[in-house]
Amino acid sequence: MHGDFEAQRHWLEITTHLPSNSWYRYDLMYWGLDYPPLTAYHSWLLGFIANKINPDWVALDASRGYESDDLKLFMRYTALITDLLINISAIIAFCQTCCKTRSRIERNVLLFVALIQPGLILIDHGHFQYNSAMLGFTLWSVICMTQRRFMLGSMFFCLALGFKQMALYYSMPIFFYLLGISAGEAKRNGISSGVKQLALIGVTVIVTFGTLFAPFLTSLEDFLQVIHRIFPVGRGLYEDKVANFWCAISVFVKVKKLFPVETLVRISILATLLAVLPTSINLFLANLKSVDTANPKKLLLTLLNGSLAFFLFSFQVHEKSILIPLMPATMLLGDSDGVAWEGSVFVTTAMFSMYPLLRRDGLAIPTVVMTILFNILYGWRALFGPKSRAGLFVRFLAVASYLLFATLIFCEEFVSSVPLPRYPDLYVVINSFVSCCIFGALYLRYSYVQLFDDGAVVLSSGKSKEKIQ
C-alpha cells in the first residue's frame, strides 16, 4: 500500500496538521504534495473528517504506512463519493442535456457504457487516486459550454486544472473553442461584443485561479514553490515504460542519453504543438463560422485529439495519463454511427497499456475480467454488430491486436519467471511499443474523422441529427 494510496493518505495528514505554506515543502522525499491547490483543499477536507473519526489515521509522521481496514474503507468511500458527486453526476447530466435527439435506450446505453468503462474504475478505486474529480470538472465544462454558459464552463475547467495539472492536456482545445466563440461573436455582432465576451471569460479565469491560489500569493517564494512542485521538469521525459512516442522510440534511439533535459523539454513542446494545432484550429474555424454550440461532438473530438497528442508527445507522461483522452473517447461511444468502434479499441488498448502498473498493484485479474466484460457488453458489438462502421481490415487489425494483447499478458504472467538478464523488462517494453503504435493510429483516425469525415453523425441537443460543419 506504500504507493498512491499512502500518498493520498499522507496528503490528508500534512494538510490537516500544517499551515498552507508548508504543504508544498514538508519532507518532499516522502510523497511530497505535487498537485495543484484544489487537490490540497480536497485533502484538507477529507483529513478534517478523518481526524474526527480516528486521529491515528492522520497523525503527523506517526501515521506513515498506516493500513488498518477501517482506514482503507474510509479512503475507498472518499474516492467513491468524489466520483459520484463530480464525475458520475456529470455523465448523467451529459446524457440528459447533450444527447436529446437520441432515444432513451440510446442515452441509457451511453450512460451504462460510461459507468462501466474499466480504466477509471481500476485506477481510482483499485490503484487509488481521485482522477474522477478532474475528469468530472472537465465534463461539466463541456456541458456548460455547449449550453452557451461560457463563464461557468470556464470556471469548471479552471477547477479541473486546479485539481490536477494534467487537465492541461485539454487546454489547447478549450482555448481555441472559446477563442472561436468570441471571434464568431465579434464577426456577427461587432468587435465590442466579441471583446466583451472574451474579457468576461478572462475575468472568470483570473478570479477562479486567484481564489484557488490565494493562500500562496502572499509570498512569491511560496507561489514559486507550488509551481515547482506542480511542474517537476527534473523528473525526466517520461516515467516507467509509458506507451507514448518518446518511450517507444527509445527502443531504437536513446533520446534521454542524446539530449539534455532542457533540449528534450523544447523538442517535446514543439512536437506536442504540431500534433495539437490542426484539430484545435479546425475547432476554432468551426466556431467562427457557426452559432451552433449545442453539438458536443466537435468539442469532444478535439479534446480527444488534443489530449491524445499530449499523451503521445508531451514531457513527463505517466501511464495513468491515458485516462485523460479516454474520457472524451468514452463519451463519444454513444455515437453509434460515428466513432464507436474506435472507442472500443481505444478502451481495450488503454487497459492493456496500464496492465503492468495494475499488475504491480495486484489488479491483474480485475483488469482482465473487466476488460473482457466491457467488450462482451459493448466493444465487440461496436466492432462486429450490424450497425458497425468498422470495415473488414479494421476488424482484422482489432482481432489481431486483441490476440497479441492476450499473448503478451500470458507471457508476462507465465513466461516472465524465466530470467532474461539482457532484457529484464522485455514484455513491458513490448507492451508500451505496441500500445503506442495503436494509440498513434487512433490519433490519426480520430483526426481524420474530425477534419475530413463530414458524414459522421453528431450528437446534438437540437431536434434533428446534423452533420459536422
UniProtKB/TrEMBL annotation:
Q: Which UniProt keywords apply?
A: Endoplasmic reticulum, Glycosyltransferase, Membrane, Transferase, Transmembrane, Transmembrane helix
Q: What is its EC number?
A: 2.4.1.-
The organism's place on the tree of life at top rank: Eukaryota
- Location(s), subcellular: Endoplasmic reticulum membrane
Q: In which pathway does it act?
A: Protein modification; protein glycosylation
Q: Describe the family membership recorded for this protein in Swiss-Prot or TrEMBL.
A: Belongs to the ALG6/ALG8 glucosyltransferase family.
What protein does this entry describe?
Alpha-1,3-glucosyltransferase
